[in-house]
Amino acid sequence: MGRSPCCEKAHTNKGAWTKEEDDRLTAYIRAHGEGCWRSLPKAAGLLRCGKSCRLRWINYLRPDLKRGNFTEEEDELIIKLHNLLGNKWSLIAGRLPGRTDNEIKNYWNTHIRRKLLNRGIDPATHRPINEAAQDASTISFAASAVKEEEKSGYGEKDIKRSVQERCPDLNLELTISPPYQNQNEPLKKTGVVSLCFACSSGLQNGKDCSCRISSIGSSSSTGSSAPGYDFLGMKSAVLDYRSLETK
DNA sequence: AATATACCCAACCGCACCCAG
DNA sequence: ACTGGGTGCGGTTGGGTATAT
């Protein structure tokens, strides 16, 4: 059977958009708003697939887009979010106003990957490359949940549902486990260790480390005795995902 | 100056999810 | 419960541009 194609490919333009097409699309969306992408091309007089129109608008024509280079702060935020979320570019983009998932994905693949590799960090696991190779254990909640479910023999849908059940609407109240804890390194006597991103990525006391002072004597805002980790500037063992809503 | 190579990014493709019927 | 249309997402590709040889 198969699904019907999203558009009549024989009569649609492909490739780069012309100025005229951009103008038509922009004018139409300004007049009628977003949505109904399937019927939009015809209504707007465009020989384009609806998906293509949506992509062009979202990634290029939207007036609230922030063009230009990523700042150092954006870089670090992307790295932190990727460490937590993995390749969930749309979720990451949701935390970077004016940036699109496609833009962030491209930026990750062309700049940040290399940046992390230069730091000796595996961009996939956010752990030092040599150790990431030795131990492929997971670093994110979702990934570890998937791994657990895989062991138990559930299918992909079950896995996703399970993650979703644990994280309804991604309003997750997660306890973030440290991405890596060197077994040979004893915990600080207080038993409460607040790790900055550099440390949690395996660069303890590196030049990017910002927790050398805060790691002593700080405690989790939850008041629990569990170790707290400084993530996204929140010295807490719990990350509230309600602030990570999707677009 | 010409050619090769690397890099960047817009756009495409296929799949999965959501939801109305 | 099932089906199919609409939409969103992530991976990949291809063409343009910059840099190296």
TrEMBL record:
<protein>
    <submittedName>
        <fullName>Uncharacterized protein</fullName>
    </submittedName>
</protein>
<keyword id="KW-0677">Repeat</keyword>
<keyword id="KW-0539">Nucleus</keyword>
<keyword id="KW-0238">DNA-binding</keyword>
<dbReference type="InterPro" id="IPR001005">
    <property type="entry name" value="SANT/Myb"/>
</dbReference>
<feature type="domain" description="HTH myb-type">
    <location>
        <begin position="9"/>
        <end position="61"/>
    </location>
</feature>
<dbReference type="Pfam" id="PF00249">
    <property type="entry name" value="Myb_DNA-binding"/>
</dbReference>
<dbReference type="InterPro" id="IPR009057">
    <property type="entry name" value="Homeodomain-like_sf"/>
</dbReference>
<dbReference type="GO" id="GO:0003677">
    <property type="term" value="F:DNA binding"/>
</dbReference>
<feature type="domain" description="Myb-like">
    <location>
        <begin position="9"/>
        <end position="61"/>
    </location>
</feature>
<feature type="domain" description="Myb-like">
    <location>
        <begin position="62"/>
        <end position="112"/>
    </location>
</feature>
<dbReference type="GO" id="GO:0005634">
    <property type="term" value="C:nucleus"/>
</dbReference>
<dbReference type="InterPro" id="IPR015495">
    <property type="entry name" value="Myb_TF_plants"/>
</dbReference>
<keyword id="KW-0804">Transcription</keyword>
<feature type="domain" description="HTH myb-type">
    <location>
        <begin position="62"/>
        <end position="116"/>
    </location>
</feature>
<dbReference type="InterPro" id="IPR017930">
    <property type="entry name" value="Myb_dom"/>
</dbReference>
<keyword id="KW-0805">Transcription regulation</keyword>
